[in-house]
Amino acid sequence: MVFLYLAIRKVNFSETVLALKQANYWFVLPNIVFVILGMWIRAVRWKFMINPIKRVTLTSLFRSTLIGFMAINILPARLGEFVRAYSLGTKEKISKSATLATIALERIFDLLALLVVVWLTLLLFPTPALVKQIGYLTLFIVAGVLILLIFLKTKTNLTVNFLEKIFFFVKKAVFEKVKQIIIRFVSGLAFLDHFGSVLWVFIISLVLWIASALSNYFIFLAFDLHPPIYASFILLITVILGVSLPSSPGFIGTFQLACVVALSFFKIPKSTAFSFSIILWLCKYVPITFLGLYYFRKEHFSLKKAQMLAANNPDQV
Prior knowledge:
Layout: H1 2-8, H2 13-22, H3 28-50, H4 58-74, H5 80-92, H6 96-124, H7 129-154, H8 156-166, H9 172-187, H10 195-215, H11 217-222, H12 231-243, H13 254-264, H14 270-298, H15 303-312
């Protein structure tokens, strides 16, 4: 609620309503089309990661991707990632821990691709100091997590033995269960052994983020705004930082504030920027949530059960 308050602070709501009334919503349609297409592209990328574990159809991956992002939109603490692993693991009889490892890798490649986008933006366009700070922060996070995962994969036994010494006070039966979860998780990192697949995943990730940034320019056009094209990249980077902060389900508040901050760099009035943030959020939230709920119900899953398993027993997720 704090972020939402900051987003609406000093907003003239009569101007916001007027901007919403005058917007050309035909420009919204291409953005929505890409949001859905982006889910399909994510499924294609996920297929490269899941193939070393089991050959899964693209349709199944697409449905689970939608289900996962739907759950991110309506559940707290990004439990949607666990729901996504639960969805695919249950349907395809795959270890949920291994599936979760592929999702963790997906996030790493998202960050790597985003890092490239950030540095290209820094090199080619005048950028605010905030964007530069995001670039350094992203580099630190990506490097740390990637090193951790590579070490976990290449030195699994060493890692397990190290953890066993640290958690000596944990009952042996409990630690054995944790050990099995770690081993299953590491099996999901098998994709890293295939250089060709790694390269393709990185290329797909890069195309996904660049296309996502460019598709957001349609929302600028909907409000008859014509900032330089790199405004879409500044917007993307700022929103990614915003939604990474703790927030309510669906990133309500952090998303709107990030949009307002990004558009302020281009001297766009706050009332108009807030209108912009509402429409962009709806474009990303509504189609994914409804499609995800449709497939979740069609595949007869229980959202409550998936949430409980995620919180209480990760190996069953």
